[in-house]
Amino acid sequence: MSSTDAVRRRRRERHAAAVVRAISGQPSADLRARRLRVNGEFVATASPHLAVDLAEAPPAVARGVSDGLGLMLRHSDRILHRQLAPDTPLERVIFDLAEQIRCEALAPPELAGVRHNLAAGFDEWVSRMQHDRVTDTGVGILIFTVAHMLRARLIRSINDPFVDDLIETTRGNLAPLIGGALAALRSVIDDQQAFAFHAREIAEAVALVVGDSAVAPETVSALERAKVLLGGWDDDDPGIHNVGDAMVGGGVGSGDAERSLHELGDYHVFTREFDREVKGADLVPLARRISLRESLDNHRRAQSVSASRLAQRLRRQLARPTVDGWTFAEEDGQLDGSRLSQLVTDPTNHRVFKRERTQPTADVCVTFLVDTSGSMKVQGYQEMAVMLDTFAQALDLAGASCEVLGFTTGGWNGSKSMEAWRSAGAPSGPGRLNDLQHIVYTDADTTWRRSRRSLAAMLSTYHYREGVDGEALIWAYERLRERPEARKLLVVISDGSPMDAATANNNREAFLDDHLHAVAGAIDQRGDIELGAIGLDGEVASVFRRSVALDLSAALSLATYEVLGDLFG
Fold it and tell me: Are 342 and 367 part of one and the same domain?
């Protein structure tokens, strides 16, 4: 997959995820690599008509699936659903299908567009089942028939004569077995638990028709061939297995906070031989840095944001009271031994006490970790550089420490790591397959004035290539963790998902995405730093518990710089 295809795919998934969030009311819902996540954890469903690649589906179908997922999150208690669900694959498919159709039937009548989208998504699945000849198999025609019987009972009658003829025999055979339970569904459509009782009765009856083969490997294979699974049907059941043990991203287990960040899930690296850490000043010749600094200063003058005024705001936001001495001759507090003689000579003098003196101090280090991959070239990288340069100066004036770090790759399409992999015989599942380039534009011990030219290197986009976000986050975290400041804030600035073509093309799906989710979750659980993210035309809420969206296409103002307060209070 090319980087252009990956960007297009991720953009369509983000649009679909926005629909899911709007309908469900769940702000953390996200779709990545055909998997639905809420609060960073997988939400699995075996409903067959939802198993669609949203990045490739026609718009009407993608809207239907997005609407369906949103309604499922809105109306279905997933914990209750998991508790009531059967264990065998075929029964789980029927059970999930019934619950999904219940949720879709609860779409308000006034939302005619949503109902139209749902119908388009279901109709596309009907056509796909026939085109792929899944309905020619015993399991396939059973699922196909039950889906239509459920939908006819809860949403609308079958209006396709060909489909009606196709399922006639199977429907006739099933009616005596599931007719009573099917008839009871409408009366309990608002009661998930009561509905589940009848849905499970239907699922068990269908499994009875199939017989012992309902749990046979060939049945599971047939279900997978029919693409009826969105994610693993048991991914959201901790009683079956811990997804995090097999693949990163299924949430962070209680042990992950104590484990090394370098040992999360199945993430691994083919070679670190060509990775390097550089200074911003090393990326651009001096004459070019001087020119870029002049350009950055011009951009800053155009924004009309005073660094000193911003520093005052940041000091109020970030400062905490710290003891820096004593005040003496107080009327209460701790008795001051040096003034006891005054109490003896003048008993009416009560000013013989002292108090601790506190001053608001910005004993804080703020690290900005910036995605400097190629996609950031179209996300207002100039405005981003202006914002970060202004933050660096203002934090310096406020008495806080500041680091600005960047991450990219040493080359395109795997670079030297890819060559080494090919020389080794191109083994499968190589892990991360590109050269990392981590950039220190300014470190926490260097003042803004001394790092001005290095910061200006952000305006040069020659090094904006690809991005491996998870490892960059570990690097930034480990640097910040060693700082002496009492409070440590790490802010990730990104436009979306990790993207490294060589790694993505030669490993399992969502290899980089899952690693980023796991790292962010583990850091958040540790609690020794405060982690937040700024999303630029990209959804980051599903990865980072604290996040804000920022539009850099408009002119920067003091309001833009409220993001630190929005993230960390």
Answer: no
Q: For residue 227, is it left (φ>0), alpha (ψ between -120 and 50) or beta? A: left
Contact 414, 468 (CB under 8 A): no
CA separation for the pair 36, 33 (Å, rounded): 9
Asked if 150 and 294 sit in the same domain, the reply is: no
* 252 is a domain residue: no
Stated pTM of the model: 0.62
CA distances from 389 to 300, 403, 406 (A): 9, 11, 13
Structural domain of 375: 276-312+362-568
Chain segment 297-353, per-residue pLDDT in tens: 999 998 878 999 999 989 888 876 565 567 766 777 776 666 666 656 666 676 766
Question: Do 162 and 19 reside in the same domain of the chain?
Answer: yes
Same structural domain for residues 464 and 504? yes
Query: Among the listed ranges 26-30, 81-85, 307-311, 376-380, which one has the minimum average pLDDT value?
Result: 376-380
Helix (H, G, I), strand (E, B) or coil at 483: coil
Domain count, the chain: 3
Per-position DSSP letters for 344-410, written without gaps between them: HH-TT----EEEEEEEEE--EEEEEEEE-BGGGGGS-HHHHHHHHHHHHHHHHHTT-EEEEEEEEES
Residues facing residue 279 across a β-bridge? 440
DSSP 149-178: HHHHHHT-----HHHHHHHHHHHHHHHHHH
Encode burial over 268-282: b for 16+ CB neighbours within 10 A, e otherwise: ebbbeebbeeeebbe
**Three-class SS of 437-464:** EEEEEECCCCCCHHHHHHHHHHHCCCCC
- 204 and 169 both lie in a single domain: yes
Pairing of strands 30-32, 35-38: antiparallel
DSSP 222: H
| Residue 269 counted as domain residue | no
